[in-house]
Each structure stands twice: as structure tokens, then as C-alpha cells.
Amino acid sequence: MNKPISPSLRTLGAAIRRHREAAGMTQDYLAGLVNYSNGWLANVETGQLCPQKQAVIELEKVLGLPEKVLLDIFDLIRYEEPHPVISFERYADAESRAGVIRQYHALVLPGLLQTPDYARILIAAGRPSARPETVEGLLAARLERQEILARDDPPTLWLVIDETALLRPVGGPEVHRAQLDALVEAAQRPGITVQVIPLATGAHAGLTSAFTILSFTDEPDVAYTEDHQRGHFQERPDLVHGWFAVYQALHLVTETAAASLELIQRTRERL
Questions:
Q1: Which stretch is the leader sequence (predicted)?
Q2: From the CA atom positions of the chain, what is the Rg in Å?
């Protein structure tokens, strides 16, 4: 189902297209200036995709626009449909600026590597009362976050995944196979490391919570967890250190990156 496009989102896309054309820029050229793909900008201009705030700021700069010409429209979109997880937009902004992203997932595969079909099913299952347009909006936001991996300077991504997440048949066999294929491809990219904790490990330090640790060039590290309604940031050095200790403990029970890739491939072949 196609998500209905909000009037403000359509207005923002039209404004970006109008200013781009007035500046004599192609979509490909403007997208390159803000470090996104041509497909991303095409979807933004047609209102199919809501950009992050920092992307709107960058568009204003490279288009030579006065401050808040585009941001004023963007603020209307955010008012219309806030993210259901409080503080998540803060996390998405931090994630987009991080140089190193360390994540651990036990139940499902990480959002940065999810296929659209896999992500849509998870979002809908997690919010059974959500309207279809809300699900599609959350899906668009998740797919936009993945654009950081296509940048010229992508972050280093270190993932620890419990084998349980590989085995869960989200969406049925076809979606499951496509998702594992995408994971195999991602695990072989430079800058992305995927390590799996075998199911036979039994109890380990990660069974209480999924989490993310973000590291920056000129900012202190932060750790992040979330529940159904709220994102939780840990910024005190002692608390962040505690999450690093958990992450290191998990590495004691993971397979190597090479062995993990083989495990993912074997799981895929059995489907």
C-alpha cells in the first residue's frame, strides 16, 4: 500500500525541486553535494521520503537559501507525525554523525541492514494499532537512515548478532531469504563487520537488551537503548564504559567474521 503523502511533505519536496532547478542543478549533482544518492533526492522531491533535519539544513546551504526557508516547512512535517519513540530523532541525528557504530541485536537483524519488506513487517508487527501511512512513514525513515552506509565516508559498522535473529522467519521464506542475502552482501563490504553468537552458546551478556554505542571524532561516546515508547541515552562516561564492557564480553562468545559469514550463508541455504 502506498502511503498518503502529507501536504507539508509534498510542499517541502516541491520547494527543493523548485530551488534546485532555479540554481541550474540536476538531481544527481545536488544529491552529491549533500552526500546522498540520486534516488534519495528523487523520493524527497516527490514527497515519498521525509529527510532528516540535518539533510534539510545541508540542502539550504548548498542551494544558497536563507536560513529556515526549507526548515520552516520541515518543522510542519515533524509536527504532523512525530516519531512514536520519544528521543529517536535525537538518536537518528547522532547516528548520522558517528564515525563508528557498534550494535548488538538478539531478536531481529539491525535496522541499518534491513530490506524494505523485512523492515515493513517488523514495524507493522511492533505497532499493531498504527495506521498504514504511519507504518510507511516509519519505514521511509528507517530506509533513509541506511543512506549513511552509501556515503563517500560511511561510518565503520561493527555488528554482533545472536543466531536467533538469523533463524527468525520474519515475513515468511521469501522475505527471510532476501534479508539473509542482503546481510551476506553487507557483511562483505569494507567497513562492515558482522559477528554471530551461536545459538549453542546458551546464556550470555547480551540477553537483557539490544544496544548501540556511537563513537565520534570530536564528541564523547554515547550508548543508546530503547523500549516501545522511549529512547534512552547514556552519556556519563562510567555508564558508557559499562556498555563497552558488555560489548567486549559478547565478543568472547562470537564466531569470527569469516566463520559468521559462513554461518549466515549456511542458514540461507537451508531455507
A1: none
A2: 19
Contacts 24+ apart (CB under 8 A), 145-149: 145/52, 145/92, 145/95, 145/96, 145/111, 145/112, 146/111, 146/112, 146/113, 146/114, 147/36, 147/37, 147/40, 148/95, 148/96, 148/112, 149/112, 149/186, 149/189, 149/192
**pTM, rounded to two decimals:** 0.72
Calpha distance 72→69 (Å, rounded): 6
Number of other residues whose CB lies within 10 A of the CB of residue 39: 13
For residue 185, give every residue at least 6 positions away whose Cβ sits within 8 Å of its Cβ, in sequence order, or none.
none
Give the CB-side neighbour count of residue 17, counting CA atoms within 13 A.
15
Q: Are 75 and 12 in contact (CB under 8 A)?
A: no
State pLDDT tens for residues 62-101: 999 998 899 888 877 654 555 666 678 788 889 999 999 9
* CATH 3.30.870, the chain: domain bounds: 88-269
Read off the DSSP letter of residue 51. P
CATH class belonging to 88-269: alpha beta
Quick one: fold of 7-80?
434 Repressor (Amino-terminal Domain) (1.10.260)
Tens of pLDDT, residues 211-253? 999 999 999 999 999 887 788 889 999 999 999 999 999 999 9
